[in-house]
Amino acid sequence: MKENTFANMEYVYEVYKEGSFSRAAANLYISQPALSATVKKIEKKIGMPLFDRSTVPVQLTECGKKYIKTAEKIMDLEEEFECYVGNLNDMLTGRLSIGGTYLFISFVLPGIIKKFREKFPQIKLNLVEAHTSQIEKKLFSGEVDLMLDNYPMDEEIYDRRFFMKENLLLAVPASFESNKAAQAWGMTSDDIKQNVHMRSEVYGVALKLFEQDPFLMLRAHNDTRERVEAICKRAGFVPRVAFKMDQILSILAYTEREMGIAIVSDTVVKSLPYNRNIIYYKIDDPAAQRNVYFYYRKNKYFTKCMAEFMKIAVEEKEL
Asked: What is the model's pTM?
């Protein structure tokens, strides 16, 4: 019987992912010599090398690139079949990979994950935490099934399902003098948790009252950063940026330490303990509202696991 060239494709794929035989062997829980022997056997069967071993990290040859593309197609088909079987078995088996930024993974999804695991304990869950751009790449490649994010994704490539609406708020250290002129609009974090800022009788603050204060900003190529710049521009001033950071939680920590003001989402404020050192203000600007969606790849098999997870997510949000 003819030997299948892709029978041990997971070994080749792990070396490709890691760029190293030693790291791949450790991940696969086999010895490096055993891994090397298996890969060489596959190469001998093909009749040409899959890796250029003279480079660090090891690189794919042209034949290796084609092998990996073919292996990924096989893995996609295997996953589709496994999900199909899982559906037939009423979700008695299956797997689901969820991706999101630190904020969503740490503060939004835990309760949802708990409910899903209680209802479907047999489903293997994988959580992937990274920046939006990194998660999007994994969603595109198929490593992630669902991505929770507030950044608008390419509608030609991804489908989406609405999860919730976010509101951006101005966060100001309570000790700042600029608060005196805006006392009527100030709110505590408890007010935000109780959605006081969502009431129609609560008006947005005049942001120009704070134009002289130092501003804490996220770095470029971030949805919040883009919205903050647009909001401030329409308010008639350019923020005096004191620090640029990667995480909104870092920005809030520096705001609490009186290092500057910031614009943050109510999702963050609701997720953290009460903080009396920060005063929050509603912002009346179209860019101060945005939607959070579950994204998934178009033309990819939409599994029952994905549907059930999003159903539980919506139910938990409404509690």
From this structure: 0.72
